[in-house]
Amino acid sequence: MSGLGLAAQETAIRAACKGRGSPLVALYKDEGESARSLDRPALKAALADLEAGRGDVLMVSKIDRLTRSVHDATGLMLRAEKSGWGLVALDVAVDTTTPQGAAMAQVLAVFAELERRLIGERTKAALAVKRTQGVRLGREPRLPDTVRRRILRRHRDGAGWSQIARELNDAGVPTAQGGRQWHPATVRYVVRGNERHGRHI
C-alpha cells in the first residue's frame, strides 16, 4: 500500500480476506512510495515471500496502488502465473487466479497507464501555454524595486498591461530573469503579486 487512505485500504483487504475465508498472512505498506516503480521495499518483500511459498495471493485494494505501468503490470502477471500465485485487485474485481480475471487485469492496466500519460500531456500543454503568455511559473520574480515601482505607477496612472509591456520593451528594461521581452501577462503578474503581498510604492 502507498499514498493516502492506508487505513481504508487495510480495512478493505481484511474484509476481503474474511469474505473469501482466506487467512491474511501479512500486510505490506510502502507508505510514501510511488506506484510508478516496482522498486519499493515492502512490495519487494511481499514478492519474495510469495516466491518462497509464504502466501499464494498478492492482494491490493486498488490496482494503481500496485503499479501504473503496463510493462510492470504485465511482468507481475507473468511472474505470478509462472510461480503459481495470484494477483487480486479489489477495486476492479480482478482475480488472476481465473482466466477472465487475468484478461481483465491486462485491460485495466493498459487504461491506467493511458490515463497517467494523458494527465501528463495535459499538464505539459497547460504549462507551455502559460510560458508563451509570459507567465513565470514558480515563485514571484525578484524585480529591482525601481522597475517594480515603475510598473505600479504606470498601472495606477491607468496604463494597460500591453502598454506597460511595450514601454518596458522600448526602454530595454530586462525582465526579472534578465530576458529582453516583456509580455502583458508578465506585467499583470507583477501587479497582482504586489497586491497579494500588500506592498506599497
> Percent range for helical residues?
40-55%
Distance between termini? Answer: 53 Å
CATH H-level homologous superfamily name of the largest domain: Resolvase, N-terminal catalytic domain
Broad structural category: mainly alpha
So what's the overall shape? elongated
What is the tally of helical segments?
7
Radius of gyration: 27 Å
Uncertain segments are none
Question: What would your notes on this structure say?
Answer:
This protein has 201 residues and is mostly helical. The chain folds into two domains: 6-128, Resolvase, N-terminal catalytic domain (Rossmann fold); 145-196. The protein has seven helices and three strands. The protein has helices at 6-20, 41-51, 70-83, 99-132, 145-156, 161-170, 184-196; strands spanning 57-60, 86-89, 94-95. The chain has a three-stranded mixed β-sheet with strand order 1-2-3, with helices on one face. The mean pLDDT is 82.
List keywords for this structure.
54% helix; 201 residues; Rossmann fold; 3-stranded mixed sheet; mainly alpha; elongated
